[in-house]
Amino acid sequence: MAYTDEEMAHYQRLSNDxxxxxxxxxxxPRQPSQKITSEYAQADPIYVHKTTTLPQQFSQYRTVRxxxxxxxxxxxxGYFEALFQTADPSRVLGEVARLTxxxxxxxxxxxxxxxxxxxxxxxxxxxRETATTLPAHDDGAALLASFNEPSICNAIIMHFxxxxxxxxxxxxxxxxxxxxxxxxQDYCSTNIEPHAVEIDNLGLxxxxxxxIKPAGIAVQVLYLDRxxxxxxxxxxxPAEPSTVNAPYQxxxxxxxxxxxxxxxxxxxxxxxxxxxxxxVTNPQINLMSDPVYIPASNVCYSRHGLDLDNFYIPGLASxxxxxxxxxxxxxxxxxxxxxxxLPITTAATDPYIVPYAEPATIGQPPTLEGPWNADRFRxxxxxxxxxxxxxxxxxxxxxQTEAMKQ
Length: 406
Hints:
Layout lengths: L4 H12 L14 E2 L1 H6 L5 H13 L2 E3 L7 H17 L2 H13 L1 H6 L4 H20 L8 H7 L2 H21 L13 H9 L8 H12 L4 E7 L9 E5 L14 E8 L2 E6 L25 E3 L34 E3 L69 H4 L1
Parallel strand pairs: 3-5
Antiparallel strand pairs: 1-2, 2-6, 3-4, 5-6, 7-8
Helix pairs in contact: 5-7, 7-9, 9-10, 9-11
């Protein structure tokens, strides 16, 4: 479709005058990318075409508050989220060590440690906190909550700004040709370091070079602009190859959607890594064998004083809590001499499990008369008297009465 010069000028003014909404969360939960299509339904036809095809590749997105920090915030959150999705604590802690080493770069350009440490400590603390929770099963809810705390989010953004600035100053030859006749010092003072100044292409490149690529994270930026075509244009920054200093496995991705003056975060379907439910074993607890589930129909036990059908401990009786969760449909045998964290015995080795037998096969109950062996106690009346004989004891040792067990 051809446009007149007046139409082109009109659409360009709309783009130049675009002011992103500064309301809402700093980083939103993921939401269907069809919302972007609906947002642009009445916009420039080029945007209509491009946003219509966008959900075909990218199923979800996050909005980032457009307050002048959105590009930095989107990049920083994407960095943390990519590390979170690896579910690898050692990789996250490796980033703690690497970012700590970048303090040397900050020192080399004259930043005072008593100033920048206020920002770096927040970043490092959140990385450590993330590492201690992995593998996590909250789909990143705790991480999202942290980035919606302004004090945390702003400190991390300032840390990223300072590292990017110091990196550009110490690698000036890589960036000086793109600063439009400014010195690197002046460029960083006006475009990188100030709060609420949006990231530009050169700052984005430098931040990726200093922080993102060495972490083994690839970056893809999709530009929703008025360039010809029905697909958004994209630029890719591949992850840095694995090195001794970054021994990661696999590549994570940050995908950013750029609209005039604003960044959001995009996700392909395969990027959304809902961590599977796993049993996290405590190294202090050894389960020597699988728990033995004996059907209730094959074991007799006393219900005196205890309604097992309705007995539960809150939080443990619901299905799926743990493979060891209590169930009234099964009886789990444990040693009476060991706490529940110790090995669970099997039916073949536990002398206290007595399979159900018909009353005729039990034999005569013991009597109170002796003589008794020196190593055995005299039986309790509960094992002798007639009114207690209908209860078949689980444990056959003397004095192991149903009343004592309960």
